[in-house]
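Final report, closing paragraph on structural work. Over the funding period we assembled a curated collection of sequence-structure pairs, and we close with a single example.
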Amino acid sequence: MQQEEIAMRENWNRYITINPRICNGKPVLKGTRIPLTVILDQLAAGCSFDDLLRKYPELSREQIQAVLAYCHEVIERTEIEMIPA
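Its predicted structure, as stored:
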């Protein structure tokens, strides 16, 4: 893992905030009302970072990376209980 990736995983909170008065408490990029789910949906649909930066010129590459780092953190800290079929 590169040093940049490690730093982003530790510093995503510089770019992401959760406030019950903004977007009903969903995580958003600081200084915007863009929920992380919007960025994730775009990435899942095949948009590249460059595509996102064109669609949302107010964003930075670091903010998009922070979205992914936040999701990684949430998944790492979530316990999933398997339910038998």
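The first strand starts at residue 16 and ends at 17. Helices lie at 3-11, 36-44, 49-55, 61-76. We thank the funder for supporting this effort.
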